[in-house]
TrEMBL record:
Residues 190-199, 680-694, 777-786 have a biased composition (Basic residues). This is Histone-lysine N-methyltransferase (Ash1). GO terms for cellular component: chromosome; nucleus. InterPro entries: AWS_dom, Post-SET_dom, SET2_Histone-Lys_MeTrsfase, SET_dom, SET_dom_sf. The lineage of its organism: Eukaryota, Fungi, Dikarya, Ascomycota, Pezizomycotina. Residues 712-732 have a biased composition (Polar residues).
């Protein structure tokens, strides 16, 4: 024991003596002393020596004045402490030793040694197990026998050990404080407050580090720690989810420069987090954008929310700009309310019409006839213009319809085939008798639908016309236009220009004028049918006659071939042409069926002989092969050319026959025409009409003025609009009763009050009465002109309507005669085919 005591004194004395010389930290000194004193081996030996001192001497061991940390656990050794305190020299020696140690430990190397001591002690739990295996700094095998004194320490040994530990603690504490002081001094002042930590922090950090190293497999996780932050990110997965991710944070402050690479423990991370929370503005980290999250929209009232009833049809497309600019709140259009769509259909909708292309059986670009030169207007040629001017004043009429009724089927103008306009009708848009005006707007708009018709090639009748849309009953379809020529001009053309033609597109027009549609509208291609879906009508529009094709009473569907009854008058059986319309009630020939039985028998014989028209064939559809055969046969047949002489004779005969039927008005004309063969007689015929027309015009205008005044009064009353507004095409023709009424009204006005409007009494003026009667009952009739057997020229002349509106004998007589003379429409075709 003496040896040990001397050893202690010898070992402490030099240290104590060296302290004044090494006030400043000296690495050499600091490295030597701790290794002797604080290594586990030394610590153990010191402990053992203390224990030996305690057992052999009563007060051998220097005493610590304060042992706060271990006092509670060392109650048993209090008696020993008091005995130790009695030895003041020892205590002072030990105190001095502590102070010298503190001064010597102010270097980092000494700190590392201190930490190493602590690590080893913590790793082993206590210092005692070391005593089992380590003796004098050398490792021992577990079964190595040791002395009893070392295995069973006495109370004095325990007290000595505690004093050693307490001493060591104080040394470490002092060192830690010094270390912290150095750190704070090295740091900028602004960060000093955030770096300060308790002296126990380093121990805790080290303890956690050791624990982590012990838990890791062979310390793999410690490799590369802190090099590139991977470890931090790996550790981040172990943190609670609500923790702020470390990835986006600024890199943690570098550890102590001299310190060894060490593991970043949870405590370090928490420290980093604390620092970040404390000084968020000092670090120039980019502001992290919050994650985009679309707010969820909830429908408050269901799918139809936001829809309001509206009469406007839904728009297909809506640009973004218009959507932004419109002040009207946008409606939900994805699933429109059925009730709204239904109400809109009822209020403003129309029947659904399929696009015309669906019914188009033929592709576009049909071959058009080469000889067809198109014109959509009537063109007066030669003397026709001058002759026509002399008569234009006759074509005036005044509408007497009221606003509440509109120009319906009882309209007098309609009855007389006069079109209303601003000059003769005061109704304006409410008027329903402006067919040609409607057609004008349609053709002006253009397009396949508005025009509504196109040329097709039929199987056995040459070209034809097909509808590209639906047409209402009595709706105007297409105008029959061409060159308006005089009879003289017609004869000339027949002799020279058309002498080699197979087809002639000639139709009697008005006032001994003829429309030559060789250069004309598409209407010239419309074929004949015994059960037609259209009709050809002549109207007076703005004082001029015009002819147009109108839909029949059934209307016309899209894709139907248009046809009308030529009512062809062949004049001779020789010129009878076989009909191929295919209708059930087909008459078998183009034109009316012969009334005379003898004529019918002759016709039948003819057809039997030729085999072209038989009774069986009439009214039945023929097969295409038959039709083709016929057409081929037609083409093969040689035709005799028209001679000027024969044409002239035929035309003269036809005109004479036609004009003899209208004796009252065209008597002079026919005579002159028959004798001279020229159309110059028109002037002589029309002169009296011009005179009469001037009177009528004055009367009509007066009536119109008077009517206009009354109309103004009526309009103030705000009468309801006509139910037939804008539906002129769907109106039916005047019925027999209506015609009677109109005629009766006219008759009554003959002896009526003079105060009444002259316009309301057309019979008052004989010219007007005649004119009305002339215009009302007419139907384009086609007749075949009597010609020589070699000539196929036909001069069809329209026949007067059988159901004339004349009620009285006087009116009936004038009506018949004037109609026959005026309603002359001719389709003059030469097919070169004789039946
Ligand atoms: C005004 S053109 C009609 C257009 C004519 N299909 C064409 O190709 O130019 C009249 C001629 O057509 C023929 N045609 C018209 N309808 C017919 C029908 N139902 N049956 C036979 N031929 C007809 C006759 O040859 C008639 O002379």
């Amino acid at each position: 024991m003496a040896r040990r005591t001397s050893r202690l004194s010898t070992s402490t004395t030099p240290a104590h003596a060296d302290v004044p010389a090494h006030d400043q930290p000296d690495d050499t000194m600091s490295l030597d002393l701790p290794e002797q004193l604080l290594t586990p081996e030394n610590s153990r030996s010191e402990t053992s020596s203390n224990n030996e001192n305690a057992s052999t001497e009563e007060k051998p061991v220097p005493r610590r004045r304060s042992t706060r940390a271990v006092r509670a656990s060392l109650q048993k050794a209090e008696t020993l402490d008091t005995s130790v305190e009695a030895d003041g020299s020892t205590s002072s020696t030990s105190q001095a030793y502590v102070e010298s140690l503190a001064n010597a430990k102010r270097t980092r190397s000494s700190l590392r040694h201190s930490i190493a001591v602590m690590e080893s002690s913590l790793f082993n739990g206590t210092a005692h197990p070391d005593d089992d295996t380590m003796i004098d700094g050398q490792a021992m095998a577990p079964g190595t026998p040791v002395s009893k004194s070392s295995q069973e320490p006495q109370a004095e040994d325990m007290a000595t050990s505690l004093q050693q530990r307490t001493l060591r603690k104080r040394v470490e504490k002092k060192l830690a404080e010094d270390n912290e002081t150095l750190k704070v001094k090295a740091m900028p002042r602004s960060n000093r407050h955030s770096v300060r930590r308790s002296t126990r922090q380093s121990i805790i950090d080290k303890a956690s580090d050791l624990l982590g190293r012990a838990n890791s497999v062979l310390g793999k996780r410690s490799r590369g720690l802190g090099e590139n932050g991977k470890e931090i990110s790996r550790r981040a997965s172990l943190r609670p989810r609500n923790a702020t991710p470390v990835k986006e944070e600024a890199p943690a402050p570098a550890p102590e420069p001299a310190a060894k690479k060490r593991r970043v423990s949870e405590s370090d991370l928490s420290k980093l987090r604390e620092e970040e929370n404390k000084t968020p503005s000092e670090e120039p980290t980019a502001p992290a954008s919050p994650p985009r999250s679309r707010p969820k929209r909830w429908l408050a009232h269901g799918l139809y929310t936001g829809q309001e009833p509206s009469d406007s049809p839904p728009k297909q497309r809506r640009s973004k700009n218009s959507a932004k600019s419109s002040s009207i709140p946008a409606q939900r259009r994805l699933i429109p309310m059925p009730m709204f769509a239904g109400s809109r259909m009822i209020n403003t909708g129309r029947d659904y019409v399929l696009p015309f292309d669906i019914f188009s059986p033929l592709p576009p670009g049909q071959p058009k006839p080469d000889e067809w030169r198109k014109t959509n207007k009537n063109v007066f040629v030669g003397d026709a213009a001058s002759e026509w001017k002399a008569n234009k004043k006759l074509e005036l009429s005044t509408c007497m319809c009221e606003e509440d009724t509109g120009c319906d089927e009882n309209c007098q103008n309609r009855y007389m085939f006069y079109e209303c306009d601003s000059g003769n009708c005061r109704l304006g848009p409410e008027c329903g008798n402006r067919n040609f005006n409607e057609l004008k707007h349609r053709t002006k708009a253009g397009g396949k639908y508005n025009i509504g018709v196109e040329v097709i090639k039929t199987a056995d009748r040459g070209y034809g016309v097909r509808s590209n849309r639906t047409f209402d009953p009595n709706q105007i379809i297409v105008e029959y236009t061409g060159e308006i020529i005089t009879q003289f001009e017609c004869e000339r053309r027949m002799r020279s220009v058309y002498k080699n033609n197979e087809c002639y597109y000639l139709m009697y027009f008005d006032q001994n004028m003829i429309i030559d549609a060789t250069r004309g509208s598409i209407a010239r291609f419309v074929n004949h049918s015994c059960e037609p879906n259209c009709r050809m009508e002549k109207w007076t529009v703005a004082g001029k006659p015009r002819m147009a094709l109108f839909a029949g009473d059934r209307g016309v569907m899209t894709g139907e071939e248009l046809s009308y009854d030529y009512n062809f008058d062949p004049y001779s059986n020789k010129n009878v042409q076989q009909c191929r319309c295919g209708s059930e009630n087909c008459r078998g020939i183009l034109g009316p069926r012969p009334k005379d039985k003898d004529q019918r028998a002759k016709l039948e014989e003819k057809t039997k002989v030729t085999g072209k028209t038989t009774k069986k064939a009439i009214g039945k559809k023929r097969k295409i092969t038959d039709a083709e055969g016929t057409v081929l046969q037609q083409g093969k047949k040689k035709r005799k050319l028209l001679t000027p002489k024969s044409i002239k004779a035929g035309v003269k005969k036809a005109v004479a026959k036609a004009t003899t039927r209208g004796k009252t008005t065209t008597k002079k004309t026919t005579k002159t025409s028959a004798t001279t063969g020229r159309g110059k007689t028109a002037k002589t015929v029309k002169l009296p009409k011009v005179k009469a027309a001037s009177r009528v015009k004055a009367a009509v205008r007066g009536g119109a003025r008077q009517k206009g005044k009354s109309a103004k009064v009526n309009t103030v009353k705000a009468t309801p609009a006509s139910p037939n507004k804008g539906s002129s095409s769907s109106l039916k023709r005047p019925s027999a009763e209506t015609k009677k009424k109109i005629l009766a009204r006219a008759k009554a006005t003959d002896g009526g009050s003079p105060k009444k409007s002259p316009a309301k009494s057309p019979a008052k003026s004989p010219a007007m009465a005649k004119k009305n009667e002339v215009k009302s009952p007419r139907k384009p009739t086609v007749r075949k002109a009597p010609t020589k057997s070699t000539v196929k020229a036909r001069m069809p002349i329209s026949k007067a309507r059988k159901s004339g509106p004349a009620s009285g004998p006087k009116a009936k007589k004038s009506l018949t005669s004037s109609v026959k003379s005026a309603a002359k429409s001719v389709v003059r075709t030469v097919r070169g085919k004789k039946i």
